[in-house]
Amino acid sequence: METVVYALPFRLFSVVLLVGWSVLIGRKALARDFWPRLSVRAVVGLSFLLFILIRLLYGQNREQNVDTSTWIATALTVGQADDPLYTLLNYSDGRPLAVVPLALAEWLGISVDYRVADIIGVLLWCLTLWIFWQLLKKYVAEEIALVLIWLPILLLSTVWNHDFASFNTEVMGNLWLIAGLFWILRFNTWSLPAALAIGFWLGCLPFVKFQTVPMGLVLGLFTAWKLYRARRFASLPVLVGGALLPVLLLTLYYVSQNDLESFWGDYFSNYFVYSYTTEYSTLSAWERFSPIHIVQFLFQSYQLVLYWVGIFGGILLGAWLVLRRRVFRTVDQNERFWVGAAWLLASFYATLQAGNNYTHYLLFLIFPSLYVLAVLSELSGFPENRKVFFFSFLLVLVQASVNGFFRKPLPIHPGEPLFQEVSAEIQRRSQPKDGLVVWGYVDRLYGYARRPMGYRASDTFWVYYPTSTQPFRMKEFLADMERNKPLLFVDAMTPRISMFADETFQFENFPAIKTYIDLQYQLVKTIEDVRIFARKKEERNKL
Fold first, then answer.
1. Which residues contact 18 (CB under 8 A, 6 or more apart)?
2. Element (H or E) spanning 449, and its range?
3. Coiled-coil ranges per the record (predicted)?
4. Is the pTM of this model over 0.85?
5. Which of helix, strand or coil describes residue 122?
6. For residue 307, which of 401, 227, 407 has the smallest C-alpha distance?
7. What single DSSP character describes residue 38?
8. 3 state DSSP class of 290
9. Can you tell me the distance from the alpha carbon of 77 to that of 477, in angstroms, rounded to the nearest whole number?
């Protein structure tokens, strides 16, 4: 099948199909009476089906992004856990709500592999885009809203930069943000329960992905402003209390588990160090937010260049049209513009603050940029906004056509035979519920072997990498090893299959860990330069 879909004739067919459908959508936007029997709602549904079909055809059951392996490992661990709640909270790298869809699938008996994870991700994208369309069509014509949701579908259907396209926490992060914005803008009943619920929803964002906090603050402040303007003063403290409630509830939970240190270390301290120090990136604050770095970040892949030029160029063109033709703007219109601008700036801040050019961070720019484009369209009015949409639409379509034509299959990792051999040996020496710990950065072994994590992280990078949090991580690692007593310990610290492999990171270089492994485990198999240790029989008999 892979040979067929990546063959030139099929790639040309997929490009022609997307271009043809794009032309239909464009005609719908420009001439509202075009093909009246085909409603905009039907076009939206068919666009989603086309999106799903293309991603299904090109989806591969191989690791596209190491983070996807992390979330698959979390999901299967939760699915096999005796205490799913504790496992979800502690074995999700501080992002429990982001991996709930995968964990739920595992809990329901669906084995999550890379293809299933991609399907779940595409369905979540469709849900997010549908909510976004419902939001936009209240302020712009539904045909224009259709164009705005079609632009990211074009990109996500054709991009083969796998760090950008594969399942990651940004998928749920965007869904949570868009659902929150929809709730804030579309519902005008500012009762105390509504304020509490909206505050609680936004307060959950750190547990979807800590990176969403700046955007959540913008939406929270916007909600507070709307309450203030509506003279709903009693709802303001309720909104704030609702936002603090998730942290309070989890604090009480961890206190009840006598493990508050883990809550602080796993959810907050580590992300503070990651985002606001130079321990994981040598870039200074100025370098992270400099215009040169922003341009390099946006245009690091030729598969994205014309998309960003089209979207941000359309924003600049729309702003120029609005300034050139000054029109009366209502208070609500001004509010939507300023919240859109603040949301976009907060999203840029969130993607740049850590100083790492991971392409999947750019997914947080998709919706605020489209929202600002929609607001400017609303302000410029019809037919002026046709110029904006023609400019953006044409460039994004060209980008999608280039991506579809030059689309390449995911290269097979040179260590794939070793991955398979090690995974087969893990399966041979263990049962489905036996814990596994991998020393190194080889998260895919959990998914390949279908074994749960014996340590709360799917890799030991945080343990061996020298940062200010290393003492805490090492203590946590040894505590998890003793609590879970995983059956197998695999030393995969080899550059053939592990990221960031280095001799200085060998577990023997950490005396406390070496002592524990020597006492509790014995070497049972060496496959090339990967060593598999099993818990000693006398130790197993104590369990």
1. 50, 54, 154, 157, 158, 397, 400, 401, 404
2. helix 444-449
3. none
4. yes
5. helix
6. 401
7. S
8. coil
9. 17
